[in-house]
Amino acid sequence: MVTPPPPFTRFPDLAARLLGGAVVWASDESFAEKENLIRPGAPRHSPATFGHKGQVYDGWETRRRRSPGADHAIVRLGAPGVVHGVIVDTAWFTGNFPPEISVEGAHIDGYPDARDLCAAAEWFPLVPRSAVAGDAINPFDVDDPRTVTHVRLTMHPDGGVARLRVHGIARPDPALRPPGAMDLAAIEHGGHVTDCSNLFYSSPNNLLMPGFAHVMGDGWETARRRFGDDDWEAHNDWVEICLGTGGKLSMLELDTTCFLHNAPGSARVRGRSGDGEWLELLPRTVLRPDTRHRFPVTVDAVVTEVRLDIFPDGGMSRVRAWGTPEVGGVQ
Known about the structure:
InterPro entries: Allantoicase, Allantoicase_dom, Galactose-bd-like_sf. By secondary structure, the protein is mostly beta strands. It folds into two domains: 7-170, Jelly Rolls, CATH 2.60.120.260; 174-330, Galactose-binding domain-like (Jelly Rolls, Sandwich), CATH 2.60.120.260. It is built from one helix and 21 strands. It has one helix at 114-120; strands at 22-26, 50-51, 54-55, 60-61, 71-89, 100-106, 124-131, 137-141, 147-156, 160-161, 163-170, 182-183, 192-196, 220-221, 237-255, 266-273, 278-286, 292-296, 302-311, 315-316, 318-330. Strands 12, 13, 15, 16, 17, 18, 19 and 21 form an eight-stranded antiparallel β-sheet that branches. Strands 1, 5, 6, 7, 8, 9 and 11 form a seven-stranded antiparallel β-sheet that branches.
């Protein structure tokens, strides 16, 4: 039986490299580099692959500690936000994983260097000191409403961790909001997926990532729908997105880049107004494969959510909801 992922994984990974996350410091990285902690994709492993430091691991691994203490790594989140859960993945680490870990958070303005982070940061607990299993995905729920800009992973006392994922909702500083129209659905501006019909191949949060997709895996793709000819029109996939801030939309971008033979045949977009009413922003419209589509929005109403329906199934790389934020409308 396949174990379902923890609910918090429906939120984006705020430490993702594509968002601008970075591992800015580690107490030790004798066997494997700290930067591997936030690499995209699942950890890889080839047995008996030895370098001059020993077996090559796709993760962060420290030397064997011969004195009291612990090893630490500090990650700057790509987007500051409220953390809902953390995954400490020890894939392929079997006799060299840490028996226990802890994770702390801090909120730090500006762009401090590693010395300031180590010396002056006021860290608070996100995950208390907890046991972890080797060669396993270790999930931890987090219940703390504070905004986090940096996290510190501690291995007690040493060992190796393959990946660190920090799932949550971005909470950007309103003072740093770009002027004029902006993508209100972007993860870095607080947008996030609240629900979707299917995420068989990849997470719908990929739709809201910055930049352009380079491969299909960078987007959202559903399983193939199977149904009879008589009810073909009655079935479709969909995704609902909470905007980072309510606002009036001026343009929608539906990007099928990299999806050649599995792009949706058509799509429709609706927006939810403050009173809960769903408004049609884009009527059902034919889409082309491997194409960035831009559509003007003429609805003069503040919306807080958008729903994308694709017909009947398929994949998309990005969704953008360009508009002007409502004054004081940060959610």
